[in-house]
Amino acid sequence: MLRSGYFQRLTRGVRHRKFTQMKTIQFLLIAVAATFLSACGTLEKKSVLINSGDSKEKVLSIMGPPGDRQFRGKDEAWQYGQTGAGFGYHDFRIIWFYDGRVTGITSYKDYTPASNSRS
Q1: SS3 for 119?
Q2: N or C: which terminus of the chain has fewer CB atoms within 10 Å of its end residue's CB?
Q3: Which CATH number describes the domain made up of 42-114?
Q4: How far apart are CA 97 and CA 104, in angstroms?
């Protein structure tokens, strides 16, 4: 009897640890999936917060650093892009500045599936 009680207590601890590990892994997988799904459309959600006359600093705080930047004189364009890996969804925003202030936003979306460059 003594041995079976000891064995039950020992296996109960192992089962509890496995259950806890499984719950932790399950929670992490759900968190990662939620993060990836919430990333869809973030350019659209963020760019709605930008208005004509906003400063570069405000745009940086909302959108983060641009993926690309061009300028000529006091005109400047910051480009942001988001592609949906494997889903064929591509979202782009260009924020236009003149003398450090927002003058407009150009947006376009493309739903073309990713292409294979092999010929």
Answers
A1: coil
A2: C
A3: 3.30.1450.10
A4: 7
